[in-house]
Write a structure and sequence with these properties.
heterotrimer, A alpha/beta (396), B mainly alpha (291), C mainly alpha (325), B: 291 residues, mainly alpha, two-stranded antiparallel ribbon, 11 helices, 2 strands, 3% strand, C: 325 residues, globular
């Protein structure tokens, strides 16, 4: 009799244990730049990921945990990024790939996503063609066409001639093509253009060329961060502002966390972009408050942080809807229809046909607010912008 | 025509500024390679160190700009003496391969230390107000800072050449470069000469690094990224010579600026091709000693 | 280099211990299936290091520009696959070898008439030229974005390149085996002996009428060919080429691997990449800043105290043990 009771107790206990869903960990592999000259870009993304995870633990189904495995690609190193992505998939068995600071790194990892059926959530890389490289890619960040085409259209109202100076890589070519299309379609004239090598620290000879061509404005795109500061310095040193040449571009050239390093030169620079840390919508204020509480009052999130933040939100959404049981095709289905009104940048959604981000683009001017330089949002240049390049080229 | 003249002047000006900085940094390399026969690929480390010293002195300690540059010179020179006595001097008789490997090891170490101490951002060397802005000369505006670079480098070059031509130390250096064994046998203390000259060359590199921080950015990967430029100046100019690298540096500075201005789609390609051409025509450099 | 062991005995037969690396490689295939892509990379770098050792260790030519041939081989394979639609891996590999060889003989013939710093500078300049071309000719090479869309057909129509790297590993192993055998034959031949002569005392070699220049160009060309093959293998394994294959940093890393293992001895080129890449795989991910610090310090220490690298230390220990016995 005692034996029967004991056995019964054990069986009951085991049944209860089995009935509880075992703690499930969903692994997300994040490939970012955490070392080398561009380390701040990746750090800003990583911080956003960690902060999101810290504040949203209740947004996961019960028993489900998310583990982010972070790997450092060291910069635009497509071969290293591919190797890291491959190891994340094969060795660490991640169910999502995320991060992707740079276009070349995303492009080299795309085939792995397809072959292994691992959804890739792009949190930064901005060249339009990336999402077409695999049906398992969704982008939560931005494209250069989204910002530069409306910039061109708007700029043609203010300036008659423009000079285009971009860095010589994927996003740079996109920015150049997009701005040129927008500007010339709206009646403006491009008086010259130059592609600057990506690994080049001295912008002065290029800015000199711009000055000698005497345009009304110079549209520039270089990778955000130290290169943006360098080109801004060159613009100031050569006195282009005094010569009447206005500096315009996508928001990458005046990112919020880099503005303090640029001195006074950026005052008056006009940009079109999807995010400014100075935006006063409530979602952004809340985001900023949480950020500064975690990382210090002097720390400023960048647009890359927001890309990572929203990327995590999308991943959490997919996890929630599937109650922790991730099926790659169902995940892509869910992500295609992802929407959020709570993003720090305003309302966002994913275009179901192209799996690319749809968001507002704002016109901003660099002004001094409370003693510091900020990107003050002046107006919404265009709302719910889909990636124009794909529309123009009928690509999916 | 007016526009063409304007761009030529601009290229010549900016190119000269770049060339002067390259020379100030590289002249030390030329002398030590000619004097000690030591291939110090890590020379860029001294320039980078000087840049960091100057940047830190200005932004952290509020040291005025000229004093910060002097500080860069002194501290880097002192540091190089320590390195020379402890490490370099063991390898004077070593094979070329060992010297190359040793200096590459030094570069790796320096890059890691710089990254660790200063992080990965470019270090801005904040210029004093009197060096910002433009300087008007003959109806054209030139950035004041680059005018300062050209002027101060010219002064330093003048002092250096005077020192080598007219002083006793200079005579000893020239003797030892010409024929080390003979110099030793007439009683010149080559060990001390090496150390002193090495310190001077490294100090100058440090000063050049700090002075040229706006043109050649100070960041942890500095010694890797700019190694080719310094080596080209020395190889094309000629080892052990003073004037050769000067001409080479100016040529390279102007050619590089000109290419970026007129042929940006080719990048640095023409410079390297030209270097290959010069070295094949004159393997010892333009002013080097033909052995 | 003063510490030059493992040169040539008169007996070129393969000693039994020389089969050890291959046994280990095959065992790794079965025991470590998740690490095969790392394994393939190690095999590629062993071939690359062997090619460098031919000129640095055996012929005594110091170069920082070996990545020119590696990179050319890599891009040729990639461009054939991505732009010309030629996807057969063996065809691509032959093309990489040919490209490496042609560039090797052309550049070698030109630069081997110079020495020391001039030679070093020329090797750097040549690599820089190639790097600039790769950077600028972006329609062909992908520029800074790298070359994607490199499709490699199954080897012999049967073995597909999969994400786990199984095919890649065995493919690289076979190529390395062939390369190793060829290089070994060359070193244990009169030609190899003459290389040692050139390295130790080239004046005397001239005096005895040996065609030094021709020998140097020949070994340089062969070395460049193998480097080109290694580059092609890398592209085929990764199905991607980036500008890094031509960078100065990666050329420096290769030198480090070679020195670590031991210059001037075939198995130095085996030991070095194995130790370096495995250590990098574990350590560099956790501590990327300290990795370079460690590598630099190790390099300085090796030069000052352990010039024969790891194998040199092993030799010294073995000699000590033999003395005691």
């Amino acid at each position: 009799m005692k034996l029967a009771i004991k056995t019964g107790a054990i069986l009951l206990a085991s049944a209860l244990c089995a009935a509880q869903a075992p703690a499930q960990t969903i692994k997300v592999g994040s490939v970012l730049t955490l070392s080398g000259p561009n380390a701040t870009l990746g750090e800003n993304m990583d911080r956003a990921i960690r902060l999101y995870m810290k504040l949203h633990q209740d947004k996961l189904p019960p028993g489900v945990k998310v583990e982010v495995i972070t790997r450092d690609d060291g910069g635009p190193n497509p071969d290293k990024a591919k190797q890291l992505s491959q190891e994340l998939i094969v060795r660490d068995k991640v169910q999502f790939l995320a991060g992707m600071t740079w276009t070349p790194n995303a492009m080299s990892s795309a085939p792995l996503s397809t072959e292994a059926k691992v959804p890739m959530v792009i949190m930064n890389a901005g060249t339009s063609v990336i999402t077409t490289m695999s049906p398992y890619i969704v982008r939560l960040s931005f494209t250069l066409w989204q910002s530069s085409l409306p910039m061109g259209t708007w700029a043609a109202k203010r300036f008659k001639t423009a000079y285009v100076a971009v860095s010589d890589f994927g996003p740079g070519h996109d920015a150049e093509a997009a701005f040129t299309k927008g500007f010339t379609d709206a009646g403006g004239k491009i008086v010259g253009s130059v592609r600057i090598p990506l690994a080049n620290p001295d912008f002065v000879p290029f800015m000199q060329r711009v000055k000698d061509a005497k345009p009304d404005a110079v549209f520039a795109f270089v990778p955000a961060g130290k290169q943006a500061t360098a080109i801004m310095k060159a613009y100031g040193e050569l006195g282009l502002h005094k010569a009447g040449i206005r500096f315009i571009g996508p928001g990458d050239i005046t990112t919020d966390e880099e503005l303090p390093n640029m001195g006074d030169v950026p005052l008056g620079v006009l940009t079109v972009f999807h995010y400014s840390a100075a935006a006063d919508r409530p979602a952004n204020k809340a985001f900023l408050a949480a950020w500064k509480k975690e990382y210090g009052a002097n720390s400023v999130p960048s647009f890359m942080s927001v890309g990572a933040w929203d990327g995590m939100d999308a991943i959490y959404y997919a996890i929630r809807e599937q109650k922790g049981k991730i099926d790659p095709d169902r995940t892509m289905d869910l992500l295609r229809h992802y929407k959020s009104d709570d993003s720090p940048r305003g309302p966002i959604s994913i275009d179901p046909e192209t799996r690319d981000i749809v968001q507002n683009e704002y016109l901003r001017e660099v002004r001094r607010v409370g003693g510091k330089l900020e990107n003050v949002e002046l107006e919404t240049v265009q709302a719910a912008v889909k990636d124009p390049w794909k529309i123009l080229n009928h690509k999916k | 025509m007016q526009a063409l003249l304007a761009s030529v002047v601009s290229v010549a000006f900016h190119g000269t500024a770049l060339g002067m900085i390259l020379y100030v940094i590289s002249v030390g390399l030329s002398v030590t390679m000619g004097l000690m026969g030591f291939a110090n690929l890590a020379h860029g480390v001294f320039a980078m160190a000087g840049g960091y010293v100057a940047a830190t002195a200005i932004s952290r300690f509020g040291v005025p700009f000229p004093l910060a540059l002097v500080l860069a010179f002194v501290l880097v020179a002192a540091g190089s003496v320590v390195l020379e006595r402890l490490l370099y001097s063991r390898l004077y008789a070593a094979s070329d391969l060992e010297q190359v490997l040793f200096t590459i090891g030094l570069i790796f170490i320096a890059v890691a230390v710089a990254r660790f101490v200063y992080g990965t951002l470019q270090q801005p060397v904040v210029l004093p107000d009197y060096l910002k802005g433009q300087f008007s000369l003959l109806g054209r505006d030139f950035p004041t800072y680059r005018v300062f670079i050209i002027a101060s480098s010219a002064v330093m070059v003048g002092l250096l050449w005077f020192g080598v031509e007219r002083t006793r130390w200079g005579a000893m250096v020239r003797a030892a470069v010409d024929n080390r064994a003979m110099a030793q046998s007439v009683g010149i203390n080559t060990k001390r000469l090496f150390t002193l000259t090495f310190a001077l060359g490294s100090g100058l590199a440090g000063l050049g690094g700090g002075l040229g921080a706006e043109i050649i950015a100070i960041q942890p990967t500095y010694p890797f990224e700019n190694l080719v430029y310094f080596l080209v100046v020395v190889a094309v100019g000629g080892l052990g010579s003073l004037r050769g690298p000067f001409v080479a540096a100016l040529l390279i500075g102007i050619a590089d600026t000109g290419c970026k201005y007129w042929l940006p789609q080719y990048g640095a390609f023409p410079i390297y091709v030209a270097t290959i051409g010069v070295l094949l025509w004159r393997p010892a450099g333009l002013f080097g000693r033909r052995t | 280099m003063s510490a030059h062991a493992g040169g040539y005995s008169a007996d070129p037969r393969i000693r039994r211990i020389e089969w050890l690396p291959w046994i280990v490689a095959i065992a790794a295939f079965f025991l470590l299936p998740e690490y095969l892509s790392l394994g393939a990379r190690i095999l590629i770098y062993i071939l690359y290091a062997l090619s460098l050792d031919l000129i640095v260790g055996y012929a005594g030519i110091i170069t920082l520009g070996h990545s020119a041939y590696f990179g050319l081989g890599a891009y040729v394979a990639g461009i054939l696959a991505a732009k010309a639609g030629i996807t057969d891996p063996l065809v691509q590999l032959v093309a990489s070898a040919a490209a490496g060889g042609v560039l090797g003989v052309v550049t070698g013939a030109i630069i081997l008439r110079t020495r020391a710093l001039t030679l070093l500078m020329l090797t750097l300049a040549i690599t820089s030229v190639l790097l600039e071309i790769a950077n600028k000719a972006s329609t062909l090479t992908g520029g800074a974005d790298g070359l994607s869309g490199v499709t490699v057909a199954p080897v012999l129509g049967l073995f597909k390149f999969d994400i786990f790297g199984r095919t890649a590993y065995l493919y690289c192993l076979v190529v390395l085996l062939i390369g190793w055998w060829l290089i070994r034959r060359m070193i244990y031949s009169p030609f190899g002996a003459s290389l040692a002569g050139v390295r130790e005392n080239s004046l005397r070699m001239h005096a005895i009428g040996a065609p030094v220049y021709r020998r140097l160009v020949l070994v340089y060309t062969l070395s460049a060919t193998f480097a080109g093959i290694a580059g092609g293998l890398l592209t085929q394994t990764n199905q991607f080429v980036g500008l890094n294959v031509l960078s100065f940093e990666s050329a420096g890393e290769l030198l480090v691997m070679l020195i670590l293992g031991g210059v001037g001895r075939i198995y130095g080129a085996f030991v070095g990449p194995i130790v370096y890449l495995i250590a990098q795989d574990f350590l560099a991910k956790q501590f990327p800043e300290y990795w370079y610090l460690g590598i630099g310090t190790m390099l300085v220490l090796v030069v000052l105290f352990a010039r024969g690298g790891i194998l040199g230390i092993v030799d010294t220990l073995l000699a000590k043990m033999r003395r005691k016995a």
